[in-house]
Amino acid sequence: MTFAVQKDYGAYVVSSLFDAADEAIVALSDGRVVFVDVDMSFDAHPGAGILCAVAHPTGVGIVTGGDDGRVVWTTKDSQPIELLNIKGAWFDSVAVNAEAMLLAAASGKKVYIYDLAKKGESKIFEHPNSVSGLVFDPKGRKLYCASYNGAYVWFSRIHPQKPQLLKWAGSHTGIAISPDGKFVVTSMQENALHGWRLSDSKDMRMGGYPTKIKSIDFFAKGKLLATSGANGAVVWPFLKANGPMGEEASEINADESSMVTVVAGAPEDTVLAAGLDDGRVWVAELQSTGIEYIQREKGSPITALAVSGDAARILFGNEDGGVWLFESTH
Amino acid sequence: MADTASISSKTPVTVLTGYLGAGKTTLLNRILSENHGQKYAVIVNEFGEIGIDNDLIVGADEEVFEMNNGCVCCTVRGDLIRILQGLMRRKGKFDAIIVETTGLADPGPVAQTFFVDEDVKAKTYLDSVTALVDAKHFKSALDADRVVKEQIAFADQVILNKTDLVTPEELNEVEARIRGLNPLATIQRAERSGVDIKSLLNQHRFDLSKMDGIANHDDHGPDCADDCGHDYHYDHSHHHHDHNPAHGEAGHVHDEHCGHDHHHHDHGHAHDHGHINPIHDNEIRSVSLSSDKPLDGVRFTKWIDQLLAAKGPDILRAKGIIDVAGEDKRLVFQAVHMILEGELQAPWKDSENRFSRAVFIGRHLDEVALRAGFEACIKV
Predict the structure, then answer these.
(1) Dist CA B210 CA B187 (whole Å)
(2) Which of A22, A33, A243, B269 has its CA 20 to 30 A from that of B159?
(3) pTM for this one?
(4) Would you call B55 and A68 a contact, using CB atoms and an 8 Å cutoff?
């Protein structure tokens, strides 16, 4: 397999993504942000580590949260811009919404809401327990915060307020919302997902995983939800009004010798990529059942994976800092 | 986790406990400021107490979570899981991690985190739980809060601090009480938290492959690692782990209360812990069981499983080495509350006397029932 880019950056790859301009960007644990196509690197968090990253809501560049208490926006054309700087904070989750131009960043029990339109103004949502996952609804009206014993729901722009709690016992570590805004799904400390149908807060238990789920991604126009945490990529159908209720998940390309550590689907297509704990990466076109290993060579576990908007490019990285950019010739 | 090859690639974590005012902050300041050739990441419960600016100090919330797995005492530190995951991505920036707990914290959840969470377990290992004790205020702390006892009972090593503030007699009494609560812990005396920083690490107290110390553990003395570096006033042999474990206890199962005077036996090793006899506590105590007859492996496994399932909340720590009938390798186990780890380790040597020994530290232990259960496992 030949790659458009193949490079060793020597630090754990925390996140990989494509921005709206199809710029391939990775965030590294040593505080660097790298624009992979042009091999341009910025020290976004000098002397510190990046813990989380998302594409900026303008569609240009990347927003990173660090263990230096800073949230930083980095584009290819300017030096890193600091959005938040809270002494002692440890930002391990960040979410944005393009419609409302809002950014949320979590450190411990506090979630900071930063209004990108009215720069400098930030609100704090306090929780009884730490928040480890954040997601806005599609319009940016509400913010969902994964925490202990459920997900807290806040109106993004109202302050002060008392949040609603979507209750479910246990520690919820990650969170995703279906693109139609009808379902919220969390990954848990236990080897399970939990979901809520938001119209009536009805619970959906989605279990049966052999390991912890670290990666969840809605794809194919929100009709499918892919997760890591098994030998194959687990795909839950969200084709009907009830979501996955009463439906069974499918496990794609289960290989007993390895575990899927990270998944990424194409936003519009039934194309799904999976990174494995043995360093390999495969891509599947789910309607044709064609599966192709784009990385056959084994190595350290894949930690970051992204599929571009047109599904033509796949960017991934591993624990040791290896980064690969695959471009489809089809 | 007993695989030494894999352990060497994991980052050691030392948990530092101790009641309010015991000297944890002083010790952490020393760890962060002194030039000892090691770099530590320190997870503290309160920012600001540490007077040193260091990018590897992380504030934690001490959030204890219950796991949804039906295990009633299975609590973990959720904040710790996230912080450790973040730190482990910056591997190479530090050699080891120290987790400070608040003075009022039960060490159980923090220790259990290292056995329950698969990601934490994959990248780190719990090296030891170390408790600091203020010699001067020990008695009043004991009266004020039962967590003081639990911290000591849970610990692998105890730093008996502020020894300069008490008389030798008072100090001996405090040490005797500590030994009464925990016969397995190493006790190090210190002034102003002045211990050898390096000796705090590389204890491997939860590592099944290095649990031989329990075999030679003197019922009335501490179990110490080869490089524990403690400063006893008597001749301390560092070679006693290689010695034959014989305590002269042939043919019967007993524990420390059986009335023998063990110190008159030939222990085959030079040091004598008998200078200070333990003062026992009526709530938390230890029970040490041993036998030189092989045990039935199936029966023992069943017994320990049932025991921990029923009494796990009260059993703080357990360790043991078992001679299983018909098995060439020794069965080694350790438990934190209900979480049990056991595996077959190094084979018995021909020259070695085979034996079984199990030590339980916990609240309200029923010694008679424990001994009866253990004896019922002897292969007939």
Answers:
(1) 19
(2) B269
(3) 0.86
(4) yes
Q: Do A29 and B82 touch (CB under 8 A)?
A: no
Q: How many other C-beta atoms can be found within 10 angstroms of the C-beta atom of residue B298?
A: 11
The answer to whether the peptide bond before residue B12 is cis (omega within 30 degrees of 0) is: no
Distance between CA atoms of residues A213 and A234, nearest Å: 10
What is the CA B184 to chain-centroid distance, rounded? Answer: 7
**Token code pair at residue B61:** 């919330």
Residue B187, classed as helix, strand or coil, is: strand
Structure tokens at B124: 């780190």
List strands edge to edge, sheet with A50-55: A50-55, A62-66, A70-74, A81-85
Cβ contact B79–A130 (<8 Å): yes
Cβ–Cβ under 8 Å, residues B225 and B203: yes
Please state, in angstroms and rounded to a whole number, the distance separating the CA atoms of residues B252 and B290.
8
**Is A318 in contact with A305 (CB distance < 8 Å)?**
no
Cβ distance B313 to B73 under 8 Å?
yes
- Please give the average per-residue pLDDT across B336-349, as a whole number: 92
User: How would you class B70 by CB atoms within 10 Å of its CB: exposed for 0-12, middle for 13-18, buried for 19 or more?
Assistant: exposed
DSSP class of B211 = T
pLDDT digit string, tens, across residues B101-118: 988 888 999 999 999 999
Are A189 and B79 within 8 A, CB to CB? no
pLDDT of A241-252, one tens digit each? Answer: 888 988 899 999
ipTM summary value: 0.91
| Chain A residues contacting B via beta carbons under 8 Å | 11-12, 14, 29-30, 47-49, 51, 67-68, 88, 90, 92, 108-109, 129-130, 132, 148, 169-171, 173, 188-190, 211-212, 319
Which amino acid appears at position B281 of this protein?
A: D
